[in-house]
Design goal:
Elements (H helix, E strand, L loop, with lengths): L3 E6 L8 E8 L9 E8 L7 H12 L8 E6 L4 H10 L5 E6 L5 E3 L2 E5 H13 L3 E3 L6 H10 E5 L6 E5 L7 H16 L12
Parallel strand pairs: 1-4, 3-8, 4-5, 5-7
Antiparallel strand pairs: 1-2, 2-3, 6-7, 9-10
Helix pairs in contact: 3-5
Length: about 200
């Protein structure tokens, strides 16, 4: 059973890559749902090459605190597919999440296809009910909190489809998505002794 969940949202030329490490805290002797404590927030330099991102994450996962206790959850959407392959070649086994506009979670090669609504609604519930804890002393804590507050739901009145994004242009959402990836997987599978390995692992 994993204790930590590292969410990785991969940036491109104009977007930051975001790394968020969340600790799941279960209450064995209390009838309370798990809490999620954010232990590390990092935005590598804008434009950092993906091989360097892979090495950075690998070093993090090999630290005494995280080694063999951490699930790596990577956004496979867009450019993520080749980067997921880089992680595998580096000896890591990421859970690849392809973010979709669909309505249900499906198993994908080596991971899952997950509606963005599932990722964001799960995060909103955790944040609003106080189950997601962000330590104020973390360097990027205020940026993450601001991203959470800036996130909103947009409804297309013609199609009734919803979309989730920063409420105005120029607001990044990379830390939100990295946190959402970690928390979605931790909430869905974190209390299982043996986490499911989708076909393709």
């Amino acid at each position: 059973m994993y204790k930590y969940f590292l969410g990785l949202d991969l940036g491109q030329a104009q977007d930051y890559t975001a790394i968020v490490v969340v600790e799941r805290k279960d209450f064995m002797y209390e009838d309370k749902p798990a809490e999620y404590h954010i232990r590390h927030i990092e935005r590598p330099n804008l434009g950092m090459p993906y091989p360097e991102i892979v090495e950075l994450v690998k070093r993090m996962l090999n630290t005494p605190q995280l080694i063999r206790k951490t699930a790596l959850v990577v956004d496979k959407t867009g450019v993520g597919g080749p980067v997921v392959d880089m992680f595998r070649r580096a000896g890591l086994w990421p859970v690849a999440v392809t973010i979709t506009a669909g309505n249900e979670v499906t198993i994908d090669s080596g991971g899952y296809k997950v509606p963005k609504r599932d990722l964001v609604s799960n995060l909103q519930v955790l944040f609003q009910t106080g189950r997601l804890k962000v330590a104020a002393e973390l360097k990027e804590a205020q940026i993450l909190v601001q991203e959470l507050l800036n996130f909103k739901v947009k409804i297309n009145l013609k199609t009734a489809h919803d979309s989730y994004e920063a409420w105005r242009e120029g607001i990044h959402d990379d830390l939100v998505l990295a946190t959402a990836l970690a928390c979605w997987y931790a909430e869905r599978f974190g209390n299982k002794r043996i986490l499911p390995k989708p076909k393709g692992w």
